[in-house]
Amino acid sequence: MKTNKLILNNERGLVLPIGMMFVGILAIIGIAAIVVTTTDLQIGSNYKTNIKALTDAESGINFAIQSIEDALKDEDSEFYLPEGDDTVSLSDAFDTPDGFSFVLGPLKKVGDNKYTFTSTGNSGSASVTITARARKTPAVKYGIFANTLLDMK
Fold it and tell me: What is the per-residue pLDDT across 13-38, written as a single tens digit (0 to 9) for each?
């Protein structure tokens, strides 16, 4: 009986297994922290890449609108607005400025004085396409044109 009591009260060898369990738990926590950090870095990188592509696509829309307006005002320009099923290649008509990564799609007429085109921004593996719709409106919607004989009293 005395031998059984000694075996049950002998806890000297228990420190090593408990220590190994703590080391294992700490290793699992460390691996989980590495995985979470790596995933967060990848998410941040993907977000940054997508925002850059979106910004480039928006820049392409603004660039195309300004370039179309400038070309239509310039009497020497060969640019024209499409009629019927005709399309105009904006990528051929206007060069993309340095520092931007967008591709302009064709300008199409979709209705009475209504036009549409796309801008695709690219950054790394991300690609964002925005479709723009524009309407050609007269410079003066309502007006009275007269010579000096008109008397407005």
Answer: 778 888 999 999 999 999 999 999 99
| DSSP β-ladder status, 87-89 and 114-123 | unpaired
Residue type, 49: T
Is residue 62 predicted with pLDDT exceeding 80? yes
Scanning 74-109, the segments in alpha helix (DSSP H) are 90-93
Q: What is the mean pLDDT of residues 86-98?
A: 89
Tokens of 97: 């400025």
Report whether 107 contacts 88 (CB < 8 A).
yes
Buried b / exposed e across 4-20, counting CB within 10 Å, b at 16+? eeeeeeeeeeeeeeeee
Q: How far apart are CA 15 and CA 13, in angstroms?
A: 6
Q: Show Cβ contacts of residue 141 under 8 Å, excluding neighbours closer than 6 positions.
A: none
- Using the CB atoms, write b or e for 119-140: b if 16+ within 10 Å: bbbbbeebbbebebebeeeeee
